[in-house]
Write a structure and sequence with these properties.
The complex is a heterodimer of chains A (420) and B (1087). Chain A has 420 residues and is an alpha/beta fold. In chain A, 35% of the residues lie in helices and 22% in strands. In chain B, the strands form three sheets. A five-stranded antiparallel beta sheet of chain B has the order 2-1-4-5-6, covered by helices on one side. The chains are: A alpha/beta (420), B alpha/beta (1087).
Amino acid sequence: MTGDIFGADMFTFLHAADLHLDSPLRGLSRYEDAPVEAIRGATRRALVNLVDLALEKEVDFVLISGDLYDGDQKDYSTALFFNKQMSRLRERRIPVFAISGNHDAASVITKSLAPPDNVHFFPVKKPGSVGLPDLPVAIHGQGFANARVQENLVLDYPNACPDRFNIGLLHTSLAGSSQHDTYAPCSPGDLERKGYHYWALGHIHQPEVISRDPWIVYSGNIQGRKINETGERGCFLVTVDDSLEVVSHEFVPLDVVRWNHLELDLTGMAETDALLDAVRDKISDTYREAGDRLLALRLTLCGVTELHGILHSGLSRWQAQCVGLTAEIDPGQLWFERLKLKTSPVYDLEELARRDDLTALVLEALEDFTPGPEPKAVEALSKKLPAEVLGEITAAEEASDLKEEVAAIVLHSIATSQTR
Amino acid sequence: MRLDQLNIPAFGPFSDFSLKLPKSHHDIHLIHGRNEAGKSSLLRAINGLFFGIPARTPDNFLHANGKLLIGATVSQGSGHLAFFRKKGNKNTLLDSSQSTLDESALKPFLEAVNEEFFQQMFGLNTESLRAGAGRLLSGEGDLGTILFSASLGGSPIDDAIKRLEGEAGDLCRGASRKDTTILPALDAFKEAERAARNETTTATAWNKLTADVARARAAFEEQSQRYREHRLREQFVEACLRAIPVLSAIRRLEEEVAEIEVPGFSGNFPKQARQARARLEVSRREYQLRKTQIETTKEALEKVGDFEKVLAFSGDFEMLHRRASQHLENLEVLPRLEAKLTERDLDKLPLVNAADQTHVKELAGALTKLEEKSNQLKRDLGNLRIEIDSQREGLSAPQDFTMLEEQVRRLDLFSSDYRGLGDLEDEMAGLRSEQARLTTRLQIDGDPRALEVPGAKTIQAAQREEERLLENMRDLQRQITGLRADLKDEEVQLKLLAGESGIFTPGDLLKSRKKRDELWAGIVASRKIDESLGEAIETADQVADALRERADQLAAASGHQLKISRLQSRLEVLRADHEKSADDLEEWRKRWAVGSFGKSPVELLEWREDWERLCELVSEGDSLAGRILRVRQQEKTILKEFGGDDFLTVHRSLKSSLARAHQEQGERNSLSKLLAKNELREVQLLRETEEVSGRLAELKKKWVELCKKNGIPVDLGPGAALESLIERARARDLLLEFQTRESAIKDYQGLLEKTARTFELEPSEQTLAAHYDQAKLDQNRARTLKNELEKLEREFPRIKLTWEADQAEVDTLIKKAGSDDLESVIAKVEQRMTLQAQLASQKETLQSLAGARELVDFIEELEAQNVEELAIEKDSLSQSEEELQSARDEARVELEEQLRIQKELSQASDEAAAYKQAAADALATVVSDTVRFRQLQYAIDFLKQQVEDYRQKTQGPMIGKTSTYFRELTGGAFKRVAAQLDGKGQPQLVAIRSGGEMLETSGLSEGTGDQLYLALRLAAIDLHLEHHAPIPLILDDLLMTFDDERTKALLPVLTDLSRRTQVLIFTHHSHLKELVGPEVTVHNLMI
């Protein structure tokens, strides 16, 4: 058998992807005593964790399936840092096999700095293959030449080498991943037909094992960067035996900042003290499970509650209250990202309408309210905002949200306004 | 809703007042009443009827608050309700039978109209009209909102908009950054982005840096090369300049060397020659020295004395010397020994040999020990027996103390009571003292507990009742006093109004006219003219004139008269009440006097406290006395039983006895244990004693035998026997010593004399010792000399040979040198060598100057150089060196700087990433706050739009109706009103004349202003009636400021309005009755 020829009983490797080095974490508004230093260099520290893991486990090689950097990354220091970490692997003779993703293809620094000689980047114009001299492993891969690749790259990948553990590196959206733009689309069937043992995929930031025969795996990114990237992030540690079977496929978290989206149902709750206690308990429970990572929390309050109005009318104040609660629990390990309100009021609209004709008129009109052209004050403000900011704002809120929020604001302001 | 009828049993000036308001096509009623007829009270009555009589009301001057009652019958469509309202806090609405009615019964008639709204809209007098107009024109309230933009505030929507604008302003307020969040966050974002860009190391920058490093390195190397070449040339020139004189020196030296003629000795010839000469000198000196030493040593050897003879007797000398000190000692000790010996009688000391002596010692010792032990045993046994007897005696009589314990227990129990007796008696004394004090104060005889004193609550209730009665009287008195004051005022007013002509009433006119008519009728009947007719006619005319001319004054005077009359009747009532109150108080006091011990409630309360305290004291005292008596009796019993005068002494005594008994019991137990132990010990001692006695007898037998054997008296005890043995041995030793010493002295003396004779010396040890020492010294010296001589003679041949060899060598050198003046030859050789050395040195210098060049080539080059030219070149090179050095240093600095930057960048700093993170954080704030800002602005715009729509919807009709009413009220003098902005941008209402002239409300006359306000109010009522049920409109003397023309203009408007809602006009102007049309129902208010 192959093991006899090469003398290797088993080997291990790490599968990681989407490093997005030096990409900032999004959505964290700074406040006094916010743990700013804890998030500094989060992606770098996650990469260090990856290298430390490789050294600790003495893996035989490391796979990186694309998007080492952000597309708009211009800082050379990022590449230098990457090279320094790869040099640590080089000292212990651990090779790294990588492909460029859509972001790397767009990044100027990818082209500028050559990595250490233990890092092998697969070509971008056509697939390349590498056979490891001391192990029965063959690795195939092709990187992105441009930021958008809409053809199926898998079709040109070579067939599996016999008597070797064949690994395919690919940065792809994979048919069926509708949340992402189409990048090097392909289907699981395409991957299966190549006869490889393991497909190390990148591009989707959520870790997922698509298939175990063959192994089709998204390792996900090594560090979540925004609230929709919740849960643990890291890489897979894969162990293969001498019969070229994967005997262990273990997810190892590498992230140093973990995002968490909490929901709290306020149905039936009427006292602000009870609300604060519930929020405190919710955050405390999550904190206890976090270990020594920084937690970035978003809290969404929902349910039908008498507190609806007081929450909507003083959203900033409640946001500050939540920030204060996290600071009480552990200011160095909790960052409160945002408070969202999805509560419903318990107003008696009929009674409100009876108050006066104008109020009745307003309530009637509110039912048909649809957001129209931007208010002048918003237009004036928009002119001061850079395009990227406007883009973020547009992405942050959909029209239906706007209608709902405005209706809630109007309703509460009427319900709590001074009567004669 | 309309008022069908008003029934006022008691309110204000009304008593059982009733006013029917029949409905007709125009439901407008003019209620005429003089001043103070109660019109305003009537309006207040209607207000109170619907919404409750206020707690403080001015309408209780005739009827007490508790008696105030207002009633009415109202109808709405087909619904009717007859009800009353009384004054109170709750349940004030009553049905027709004056049973409580729920407030909700009025709801169908009032709908959503509350008191405030009613007063503002439907219950108008001039004051409320003008006040309401003021608020209205400032945009307050619904009408303000209707007239003007809602942003003037006051309505709930206005409030909502304000608060939303406030919140939005906290996020963004134009370009201001103070106390806002979005723009400062945006600034922070931009700043962070800028900083990130500044910190970013681009690939271009990196590549440029790499190129810069290479360029700097090349420049540095170039400069270094140039500098090196310069230095080389400079060194060459320098070398040449230095080498040329050296070359000259070499030439010169070579010449000098050639001039010196000496054989070709090697370079070390001078040294060699000198060394040979030095060696020769040394060897010659040594030879001479040795020779002299040998002769000297021989001479010394011959002079040494004859010591051998002395040394032949060295044994004797030694012995004498050794024994000298002993001899002296012997001489000293011998006399003492002799003396001691003469003291002892040796014959009497029997001789015992050593073995026997030891045996005797041992036996004596054992015997002595055994005797001592035997005696000790006997003593111990005796003591033990005494102790045993004593213990047995001690255990002989047991004691029973059970009864004693019981007695002590009883007394213990009693003792705590006994000890507390003192406290009890002290307490008793205190109680009695306080009791006496209180009894004196309260003036009570006998047992206070037997008295029947009312309870505290009863007394407090009586106190309250008294206070109430007193307060009532005081209140009535106050009212009486106030009323008197009012009465006096009215009388004064009346007097003033009366003036000189007096007060006439219509009654007076009737009377005077009646008198006149009677007189005239009399005249007509009798045809006689009564003289008083003229006066009567005059009087009547006077009265009529006065009534006409001074109608107002008379009317006012009439009012005052009426008021005076009412005050007087009220005063009477109060006086009656006051009297009754006094009677009530008196009656109460009579009732109180019974059982109150002649005290007031307050006094009785205080007295009662003391009485209660006294009762407690008496009870406590009785209890204490009982306890004291019991204790005393018990004491007597105990003393009788145990005897004695004092309980404590008896108690102590018994306790001591008991303690002793306990102690004895304990001791008996211990004693019994000890006795058993001692009895056992006695047995052991007896056994031991027997054993020791047996052994002692044996030893004594042996002792006797030994004494006999050694001639020791048996009667001597072992100790004495031992001593005599010791003494004997000591004496023997003395004798021996004496004999020995004596013999030694003799021997010594003999030897001394003999030796002295042999050498013919004085027979003294010192002399002989000195002689002997000297002989030994001579012996040593002779030995040393011999050794020395041998050594010298042994070395002498060799030294001689050495001297001869050195001499031969020197001769050889002389021969070689060819001169006897070896020194001179050496000098020449040395000179030549020096010159050669100098030559070699110069050549070496030249070679060093030549550097890597071959010396021959260098010399050739040197010979081709021109010294002057070289010097000039050297100067030139020196001057340019610094410049080249600076250039090279600059290049090096530049290179180091580039390398430093490269190294710094190689650290891969994350500053740029950190700034990007900061930018992202600021962006998050901008995004979240802008989203919120947007939501708020949409909400604000929405609300403002609704207000504007509402305004649009209602302002038009409101302005239109107001214009219509105003035009009608002013008889067309003004054609309309309009809402527009003033100079400060604030909305305002303006009146437009028929000619188009625009007047602000502040520019209108008072009357026209009232007309405008009324027009506004009527327009609002008109609008209200479009959507709500009618409410009676009450105008209370509103037309006071309206002249007839205006009144004539108003009445038709009101008449028209009355088709839609009931209109009640209160007035005191009687002429209005003539002004109104037939549609108006006129009521005269008479009370």
